[in-house]
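[recover] target loaded
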């Protein structure tokens, strides 16, 4: 986009003014602005507020009560600066806005204004989201597995799945393990990695810790990769971690999502005692799906066994359900049933 040729004359009036008496909160500044604008302009502005925001604004105006002239001027100045910043962004983009504002306000004030106007800084590694997953792997090639895991953990699960699918099988397990173990990453580490990768890519960050990765995120990624990639990753993980992942990938209540043929196949291999205990603690939907896939006699026998079953420990119920889940996983790995997963890329022919 071509930059406008002349700088707006309003630039000269953008001299920063600090709030003189105390730092106001965002809501207090909004209330102060309404007061400073006067009743006529404020009433026009309030017409655009939602009922909820209108109530909050009026309450803040009521609490503010008195406002000295110096604070009014400071509030108007800030509102003017942000309005001009928005105009500069619209007419010439971020760099153009930054150039003009820096001439008038200096780097620090410019950064503060642009942060507010653009809704704070972009999410870490946002530039990676604009790149095709296969190209992402080309510039991540040779990076440490922890670096790759950090980048992947900041991507949407669907994009992360595609990136992992492009990794070598050995690297897939290494990166997956690090994603699962990841929890909080210091912002300076995220920033350093992001800057390094930006330089490497020759292309285009959060003051708070990045809460990404972890076991649940890895499960979401694995739910979207193809089956061979999933098996490759699970087989390369530490056995204890792999079991935790498998537990989260399919739970007993998911039986309700299976087709009738798969449920019937599962019931042939399930221990009767496990089934009775598992049914004791499951939802009505799961009970209905199981009973509807049994013969009338078998369904009635199961109901009778359930009624005759006395008090049981929750631990025993959960253990029985987990035993059935193990049967389901075994049948799935043997490709005797199909576990249909949301957003999976596996194609099922019926």
């Amino acid at each position: 986009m071509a930059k406008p040729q002349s700088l707006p004359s309003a630039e000269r009036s953008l001299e920063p003014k600090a709030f003189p008496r105390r730092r106001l909160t965002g809501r207090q500044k909004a209330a102060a602005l309404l007061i400073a604008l006067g009743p006529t302009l404020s009433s026009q502005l309030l017409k655009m507020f939602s009922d909820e925001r209108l109530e909050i604004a009026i309450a803040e105006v009521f609490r503010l009560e008195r406002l000295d002239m110096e604070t009014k001027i400071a509030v108007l100045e800030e509102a003017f600066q942000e309005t001009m910043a928005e105009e500069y962004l619209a007419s010439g983009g971020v760099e153009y806005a930054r150039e003009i504002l820096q001439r008038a306000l200096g780097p620090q004030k410019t950064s503060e204004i642009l942060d507010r106007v653009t809704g704070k800084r972009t999410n870490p590694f946002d530039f990676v989201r604009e790149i095709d997953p296969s190209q992402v792997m080309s510039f991540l090639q040779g990076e440490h597995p922890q670096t790759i895991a950090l980048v992947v953990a900041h991507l949407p699960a669907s994009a992360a799945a595609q990136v992992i699918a492009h990794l070598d099988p050995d690297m897939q397990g290494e990166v997956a393990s690090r994603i699962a173990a990841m929890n909080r990453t210091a912002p300076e580490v995220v920033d350093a990695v992001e800057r390094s990768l930006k330089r490497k890519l020759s292309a285009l960050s959060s003051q708070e810790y990045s809460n990404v990765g972890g076991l649940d995120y890895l499960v979401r990624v694995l739910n979207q990769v193809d089956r061979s990639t999933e098996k490759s990753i699970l087989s390369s993980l530490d056995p204890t971690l792999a079991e935790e992942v498998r537990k989260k990938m399919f739970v007993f209540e998911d039986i309700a999502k299976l087709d009738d043929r798969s449920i019937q196949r599962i019931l042939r291999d399930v221990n009767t005692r496990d089934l009775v205990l598992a049914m004791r603690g499951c939802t009505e939907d799961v009970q209905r799906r199981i009973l509807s896939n049994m013969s009338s006699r078998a369904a009635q026998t199961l109901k009778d066994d359930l009624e005759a079953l006395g008090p049981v420990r929750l631990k025993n119920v959960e253990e029985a359900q987990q035993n059935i889940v193990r049967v389901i996983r075994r049948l799935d790995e043997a490709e005797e049933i199909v576990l249909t997963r949301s957003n999976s890329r596996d194609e099922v022919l019926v």
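[recover] notes: The beta strands are 184-185, 210-211.
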